[in-house]
UniProtKB/TrEMBL annotation:
Name of the protein in its database record: Ribosomal RNA small subunit methyltransferase A
Ribosomal RNA adenine methylase transferase N-terminal domain residues: 39-214
Physiological role: Specifically dimethylates two adjacent adenosines (A1518 and A1519) in the loop of a conserved hairpin near the 3'-end of 16S rRNA in the 30S particle. May play a critical role in biogenesis of 30S subunits.
Major localization class: cytoplasm
Gene: rsmA
The organism's taxonomic lineage, starting at the top: Bacteria, Pseudomonadati, Pseudomonadota, Alphaproteobacteria, Hyphomicrobiales
UniProt keyword annotations, A-Z: Cytoplasm, Methyltransferase, RNA-binding, rRNA processing, S-adenosyl-L-methionine, Transferase
Pfam family for this entry, one: RrnaAD
GO MF entries: 16S rRNA (adenine(1518)-N(6)/adenine(1519)-N(6))-dimethyltransferase activity; RNA binding
Gene Ontology cellular component annotations, sorted alphabetically: cytosol
Species for this entry: Pyruvatibacter mobilis
Sequence similarity: Belongs to the class I-like SAM-binding methyltransferase superfamily. rRNA adenine N(6)-methyltransferase family. RsmA subfamily.
EC number: 2.1.1.182
Enzyme superclass (EC): transferase
Length: 286
């Protein structure tokens, strides 16, 4: 055990917690635990103001990141965990921090976070990779946007993190980039090597920090952004005049109205261009 895996909070070291509660990692639940307190505290610090706003943590597992968040001054954590085996380990954290940790035993894809928070909240999580993009798209779909959401500080596979922040013209640029960058300012805070996890995943991971942008009366509806990006990137090698046939009766006319060359391809269009097309759909040009 390294010094960083010690128990500065008076609770047992995480390796002991995992052994005592039989929390052997389950692949089906995307379990890759972080045991290094230096790292989990760094993630907690990247989240911003957690001392005056609620934190929603997805998948606390044995509680490493949860404990780091509490050590960094989290006011109140709502932790959503699907693995019932984690409850006993988390009960020890609840006892050490009375009133600060609420455990919601549920599938995070099904939970309505608004039912559990007491006001504005930040999402912080070392996400299960099998559902990480589904969870992100769920949060990016909060309506009205951004409602209670103050920020998201999330661990993804590096490849997914790169898709989130990708610029037009790059290979990683796609639907996830457009929807993420429309809704949020997003940046990769730092990378985390596979060896930081127990058991190690096959790939490098990255922490992405995302802050919601305010929507204005000029912003299109989410539904139209989803439709336009699905059509354009569903056939990303095709020119827009072909790929947009799925959503516009007159794709060339739509491109002209949006100030886009109909011979352009999806991967080269910037976010404002997609928003211009989505606004046309909202205006009934479909
Ligand atoms: C990558 S592990 C992170 C564990 C812990 N937070 C850490 O950093 O060591 C992902 C966690 O998400 C949980 N999980 C997986 N699928 C879930 C779901 N659908 N809803 C809620 N939690 C889920 C797993 O049981 C696991 O505890």
């Amino acid at each position: 055990m390294s010094a960083a895996e010690g128990s500065e909070d008076g609770l047992p070291p995480l390796r002991e917690v995992i052994a005592a509660h039989g929390l052997a990692a389950k692949k089906s639940l995307g379990q890759h635990f972080l045991l290094d307190l230096n790292l989990t505290r760094r993630i907690a610090r990247a989240a911003g103001d957690i001392g005056s706003q609620d934190v929603i943590e997805i998948g606390p597992g044995p509680g490493g990141l949860t404990r780091a968040l509490l050590m960094e001054g989290a006011r109140r954590i709502i932790a959503v965990e699907r693995d019932d085996r984690a409850a006993a380990a988390l009960a020890e954290v609840q006892a050490a921090y009375p009133g600060k940790l609420e455990l919601v035993q549920a599938d995070a894809l099904e939970v309505d976070e608004a039912d559990h928070i007491s006001g504005p909240a930040r999402i912080v999580a070392n996400l299960p990779y099998n559902i990480s993009t589904a969870l992100l798209l769920k949060w990016l779909s909060i309506e009205p946007w951004p409602a209670w959401l103050m920020s998201m500080t999330l661990m993804f596979q590096k490849e997914v993190a790169e898709r989130i922040v990708a610029a037009p013209g790059s290979k990683a640029y796609g639907r996830l980039s457009v929807i993420s960058q429309w809704r949020c300012e997003a940046f990769i805070a730092f990378d985390v090597g596979a060896r930081a996890f127990t058991p190690p995943p096959k790939v490098v991971s990255s922490i992405v920090h995302m802050t919601p942008r305010a929507m204005t009366g000029d912003d299109p509806t989410l539904r139209s952004v989803e439709r336009v990006t699905a059509a354009a990137f569903g056939q990303r090698r095709k020119m827009l005049r072909a790929s947009l046939k799925q959503v516009f009766a007159d794709p060339e006319g739509a491109c002209a109205s949006a100030g886009i060359a109909p011979t352009e391809r999806a991967e080269r269009l910037d976010v404002p261009a997609f928003l211009a097309l989505a606004r046309l759909l909202d205006a009934g040009a479909g």
